[in-house]
Amino acid sequence: NAGVTQTPKFQVLKTGQSMTLQCAQDMNHNSMYWYRQDPGMGLRLIYYSASEGTTDKGEVPNGYNVSRLNKREFSLRLESAAPSQTSVYFCASSEAGRTMGYTFGSGTRLTVV
Amino acid sequence: KQEVTQIPAALSVPEGENLVLNCSFTDSAIYNLQWFRQDPGKGLTSLLLIQSSQREQTSGRLNASLDKSSGRSTLYIAASQPGDSATYLCAVTQGAQKLVFGQGTRLTINP
């Protein structure tokens, strides 16, 4: 099925470990996003990429880095995981142009101990 | 800074009732508004997208309205069913196509 695919679905890390969350979309969308969802905080934008080759910070970028590898793939890296980064991470994509909606992946549930 | 508020935070109704979920936003300079559904432990499913120039959108038993000048949107669900139980999120799109989300309304439909 066409859509946004995230891997892994679950991950447990120890404090200080690093990892990369992968995201790929097959809808030929230009824009891709990473959000985190925390109880009581809603979904907050971490980083986004308006088009291939560009990335920009969102509301909560500290502790994260991103790479727009190509038009399909947008990865999120935690260099030194902290318990405050325990969250559910969602990747999304949209077509350029503000009249289009968004498609979300199924999420990665990350726990940092 | 745009803020999106959803009221109520939780709602429980008997099956078959019609219901309304509310969403308000502080900055009327939006490009569009989108309603999503989220089942427990799952991702977000887009339900309806309303452009800033539109007043409403309909899909099956769902109808969403938008009053941009007053900063309000409603999601109307007709003849509710237990399968409608989920968290409903509204989000507005502003500059650079970034979504700003409300915190959601957790809806329970009782058989």
Write a concise synopsis of the structure shown.
Chain A contains no helices and 11 strands.
Describe this structure as you would to a colleague.
The complex is a heterodimer of chains A (113) and B (111). Helix content of chain A is 0%, strand content 52%. The mean pLDDT of chain A is 92. The radius of gyration of chain A is 13 Å and the shape is globular. In chain A, the strands form two sheets. In chain A, strands 2, 4, 5, 6, 9, 10 and 11 form a seven-stranded mixed β-sheet that branches. A four-stranded antiparallel β-sheet of chain A has the order 1-3-8-7, with no helix packed on it. In chain A, a hairpin with a 6-residue loop joins β5 and β6. By secondary structure, chain A is mainly beta. By secondary structure, chain B is mainly beta. Helix content of chain B is 0%, strand content 58%. In chain B, strands 2, 4, 5, 9, 10 and 11 form a six-stranded mixed β-sheet that branches. A five-stranded antiparallel β-sheet of chain B has the order 1-3-8-7-6, with no helix packed on it. In chain B, a hairpin with a 5-residue loop joins β4 and β5. The radius of gyration of chain B is 13 Å and the shape is globular. Chain B starts with a strand and ends with a strand. The model of chain B has no long low-confidence stretch (mean pLDDT 93). The chains are: A mainly beta (113), B mainly beta (111).
- Mean of all residue-level pLDDT scores of chain B: 93
The unreliable regions of chain A are none
Most extensive chain interface and residues per partner: A-B, 28 and 23 residues
Proportion in β-strands of chain B: over 45%
Number of strands of chain A: 11
* Strand count of chain B: 11
Distance between the termini of chain A: 35 Å
**Structural classification of chain B:** mainly beta
Count of helical stretches of chain B = 0
Number of helices of chain A: 0
- Computed over alpha carbons, the radius of gyration of chain B is 13 Å
Biggest pleated sheet of chain A? 7 strands, mixed
Largest sheet of chain B: 6 strands, mixed
Helix content of chain B: under 10%
Q: Identify the overall geometry of chain A.
A: globular
